[in-house]
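TL;DR need structure tokens for one chain.
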Amino acid sequence: MVLTSTGELFSFGRGNYGQLGYALPIRSSRIELPHSSTCAALILLQLLYCSLGVAENRSTPTRVPADAFGGAAVDEVLAGSESTLAIVGTRLYAWGWNEHGQLGVGDTLDRLHPTLVALPRGVEAIAHVATGPGQVFALLRLARDPDDDQQQG
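>> reply
TL;DR here they are.
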């Protein structure tokens, strides 16, 4: 990952789980249809998957679309081996491998594009984010609730 001084994000390398942040179309190839309906159904699913675009390896830096972050500049990026995180103001985006739900997006589906992580209400800042094998840690700074001060006083 390369983060420019203006907040643009470029990625390259292995993209088998979507960790590059964009889907690339598959090169078309000739497929002969089998006689078996089971095989035909599998090929139909494969064609659908290919038509949607899938992640693949990229050897040159390619810009992750700015609209993936609502047009805002990326403040910080963390690249794991199979997933990526970006901090944009008080928002956290995640994409790539998600087998264990480590992206925090509410399911275990891999993400080919940056996906907004729903953080708890009252987040003032994302103090620190770290990635590990199959896990993500986020240290959040929460706004003080004025009602808590009144109950203690």
